[in-house]
Amino acid sequence: MLSTRLSEAETAVLHDTYRHLHRTPELSMQEHRTAEFIERRLDELGIEHFRCGGTGVVGILRNGDGPIVAFRADTDGLPIAEDTGAEYASTATGTLPDGTVVPVMHGCGHDTHVAAALGAVAAIVGQPEAWSGTIIWLFQPGEETAAGAAAMVADGLWDRVPRPEVVLGQHVIPFVPAGSAGIAVGDAMAMADSLRVTVFGRQSHGSQPQDSIDPIVIGAHMVTRLQTIVSRELPPQSPAVVTCGTFHAGLKENIIPDRAEFTLNIRTLSEETRGRVLAAVTRIVKAEADAAGAPRPSIEELYRFPLLHNDPGHSARVGAALRAELGEDGVMTIPPAMGSEDFGWLAQAIGVPNVYWVFGAYSPEADPDAKPRAMNHSPFFLPEIEPTLGTGVRAAIAAIGAYVAV
């Protein structure tokens, strides 16, 4: 039986690892220093490894014959200015594809994922008598832009490692209490489509609107009408989200510009609903432009995430292992989330099942009037170091052990 408990020295390394990663986040597909840090740690532990997908790192831990299991931890940060006040808060910056320099923060907890995975590696390496098989450690870049999993697959990931029977992964989350975990059976996370819409008009002086075709007004009508897709075109039993996240137009208050640009993020749980929503977006955007006598707008796909589906049989197996480790009350069954993950592409690429679960970031509040803790992607998001990290390590080892423990 694999022990999930870390020694005092291992716990100190785990905490130091987390603080270091939290201080030094990097943007998606730019995780160069992070990859080098992971490689150094794997070298210290005697784990063979290689680069994959640019800034991805793959470790292979072999221990005789037995099952082959893959475990994934994502590594990228977000363009957020951290405002947690932590002693180990990030002051890092990064450069977006358009050249804009932005602050960078581990606002989604991927530093937690990497630290927990490295902690699990260290613990398992020291117990060769307790397990048998092969564990493939996937330190994946670019989750936030849906680029990393696809890049690793395209770089021949599954041609360079033994084929696993299951791919496992986890995520820190605020809505589960620290020390606990949650797992969905079946559909776990939504598909996502991100689009850029460019509205074209005719530029004019602000005092002469009759000579213009105002793309700001047209775009505003588009955004407003797009909000009716979910409320008026879909059955209430078909979950979907349509969010306009950015809107940019113009350079000066007395100039009607020649174009406006906004971006959309769409979440759905079925291909049928996805198709209906995307068709409605196209119809509404074109119709509003036609109604204003504007040129045809453009709709560009930025990226998309797959549906994340937890295999029911393997979910039951992992769920049982998590309950044995964290207690019956420490693991809850959760509904599908409208958030998205590119994790599913790793398993889909080779037609094997995957299981993905979450573990808690914050201890329950004793004060019922206390402010809710910050969610992922907030400048205030800062998981409690413990029991969060310890739970991440224990959950990873328990889930892996469900396959390889002897």
User: What is the total number of structural domains?
Assistant: 2
For this entry, what is the oligomeric state of its chains? Answer: single chain
Q: Overall mean pLDDT score? A: 96
Name of the CATH class of the largest domain: Alpha Beta
Please indicate the percent range of residues in DSSP E strands (runs of 2 or more). Answer: 25-35%
The CATH architecture of the largest domain: 3-Layer(aba) Sandwich
Task: Briefly note the structural class of the backbone.
Answer: alpha+beta
Could you spell the SSE succession in H and E letters?
HHEEEEEHEHHEEEEEHHEEEHEEHEHEH
Count of β-strands:
18
The CATH topology of the largest domain is Aminopeptidase
Provide the low-confidence segments as ranges: none
Overall form: elongated
Main β-sheet, spatial strand arrangement: 1-2-6-3-7-18-8-17
List the total number of helices: 11
Largest sheet: 8 strands, mixed
Report the C-alpha radius of gyration, rounded.
Answer: 23 Å
The CATH homologous superfamily of the largest domain is named: Zn peptidases
Helix percentage = 25-40%
How far apart are the first and last residues' alpha carbons, in Å?
Answer: 6 Å
Describe, in plain words, how this protein is organized in 3D:
With 406 residues, the protein is an alpha+beta fold. The chain folds into 2 domains: 8-189 and 307-404, Aminopeptidase (3-Layer(aba) Sandwich); 191-305, Alpha-Beta Plaits, CATH 3.30.70. The chain is built from 11 helices and 18 strands. The protein has helices at residues 8-23, 32-44, 110-125, 148-154, 157-160, 215-226, 228-233, 271-291, 312-326, 344-348, 385-404; strands at 48-52, 56-63, 68-74, 93-95, 101-103, 133-140, 166-177, 181-183, 186-189, 191-200, 204-205, 240-249, 255-256, 259-268, 298-305, 308-310, 331-333, 354-362. The strands form 5 sheets. The chain has an 8-stranded mixed sheet, sandwiched between helices. The chain has a 4-stranded antiparallel sheet with strand order 12-14-10-15. Helix 1 (8-23) packs antiparallel against helix 3 (110-125), helix 6 packs antiparallel against helix 8 (271-291) and helix 9 crosses helix 11 (385-404). The chain is elongated, with a radius of gyration of 23 Å. The termini are close together. 45% of the residues are buried. The model has no long low-confidence stretch (mean pLDDT 96).
